[in-house]
Amino acid sequence: MSSGDAVTVERTRIGERFATIRTLIRSCAVIAGLYVSKDIIVALSGHETILALKLAFLGDWRSIIAYIAAISGLGWGFTERKLRHSTVNRIQGRMTELEIRVDPNRTSSGLTPEGKTNPSDKRR
């Protein structure tokens, strides 16, 4: 195995470790949120509250879960998109350098540094 392969393997291992840690943190946050929610529900049980009226307008528990899932999915999607654009922006210079080294006559795709579509390509 060459030193370049060893570096690639080590980078992959580090990346996988960070992905695992990130998943563990997210899982712990969800569990903590559920635990706190349980305590809130226990504290409010048997009391007439504004929360009970608001929940009555939302419908049954399946609807509430669907709303929470939809909002969570949107938040997750926007966050992942922002992270992807920032990563592309961070590595864009190195990619351009390597592409020019391989083919100096290569033309640009016209993407922005964040990897977004060239604004002049959008339909009017």
How are the SSEs placed, and which strands pair?
Blueprint: H1 3-44, H2 50-58, H3 61-102
Account of the protein in words:
By secondary structure, the chain is mainly alpha-helical. The chain has two domains: 47 residues; 59 residues. It has three helices and no strands.
Q: What is the structure about, briefly put?
A:
With 124 residues, this protein is mainly alpha-helical.
Which terms summarize this structure?
mainly alpha; 3 helices; 75% helix; 124 residues; 2 domains
Helix content: over 70%
Global geometry: elongated
Structural class: mainly alpha
Q: Main β-sheet: number of strands, strand sense, barrel status?
A: none
